[in-house]
Amino acid sequence: MYLFSSNTEQTEIFKKHLDVKYSANVEVMSLDLMNKKDIDFSALDYDLVFCASGYLGKAGEEIIENDADNDRILKINYSELVPVLNTIAKDMVKKGSGTLIVLSSVAGERGRKSNFMYGSAKAGLTAYLSGLRNYLFSHNIKVLTVKPGFMKTKMTRDMDLPKALTISPQKAARLIYRGYKKKKNTIYIAPIWRLIMFVIRNIPEFIFKKMSL
Ligand SMILES: NC(=O)c1ccc[n+]([C@@H]2O[C@H](COP(=O)([O-])OP(=O)(O)OC[C@H]3O[C@@H](n4cnc5c(N)ncnc54)[C@H](OP(=O)(O)O)[C@@H]3O)[C@@H](O)[C@H]2O)c1
Fold this sequence. Notes:
- This protein is an alpha/beta fold.
- It is built from seven helices and eight strands; from the N terminus they run E-H-E-E-H-H-E-H-E-E-E-H-E-H-H.
- The strands form three sheets. The protein has a four-stranded parallel beta sheet, with helices on both faces.
- Helix 2 (67-79) runs parallel beside helix 4.
- The mean pLDDT is 96.
- The chain binds NADP nicotinamide-adenine-dinucleotide phosphate.
- NADP nicotinamide-adenine-dinucleotide phosphate binds at residues 5-7, 11, 31-34, 52-55, 76, 103, 105, 148, 150-151, 153-156.
- Residues 5-7, 11, 31-34, 52-55, 76, 103, 105, 148, 150-151, 153-156 line the site of NADP nicotinamide-adenine-dinucleotide phosphate (NAP).
């Protein structure tokens, strides 16, 4: 198993845990989407890629004030990530099989003033994954798009999230695994977000633009 990370020091600690608890044979590899180097995926032995990279960035009023942060949001969630996924997809096509599981977000379903830079990057990622799934179908390669709502992670540690709508990374992992086993194309984490986003997507724009979401 390979763990790609921009913070290899921290990931080495996680690797030790996996090695000891699960006797996993884990190799930590450096991948910083803000300072990318080419990776030769063809030299690696793998058939499933799980991609959880993401960066939320500044929120609300600060969004349009902070170009450097916006650049980071767009790169980590979309523009520097997509070429990596393309490289993996090309390698899977050569190998003749594979599965890609990528975490996007419900934020990509409708731009809101609280996080529209992040949301627009995730919207791009979700559309890219839809096209990639379509392209890779005839090559026997599966693409699972995961749309989390709120998860209790480092990304949201300073946020006051509604308890009833927030799940643990462990529960999210179990739901993602279930979606993978059921060969789903797109899943919401948790399922209630499918309904919530249905409602949000269908609020008329003349009302939506006045709302504080
Ligand atoms: N938490 C939520 O409520 C929530 C909601 C919707 C969607 N999501 C999405 O779920 C996924 C997982 O997020 P999380 O909640 O686990 O947040 P997190 O704890 O902040 O994790 C962010 C991930 O992005 C990676 N990353 C950050 N900067 C990177 C860089 N420069 N290069 C490469 N990788 C980088 C980190 O890996 P390293 O530090 O090891 O590089 C880490 O795996 C993300 O795609 C996020 O957008 C989360």
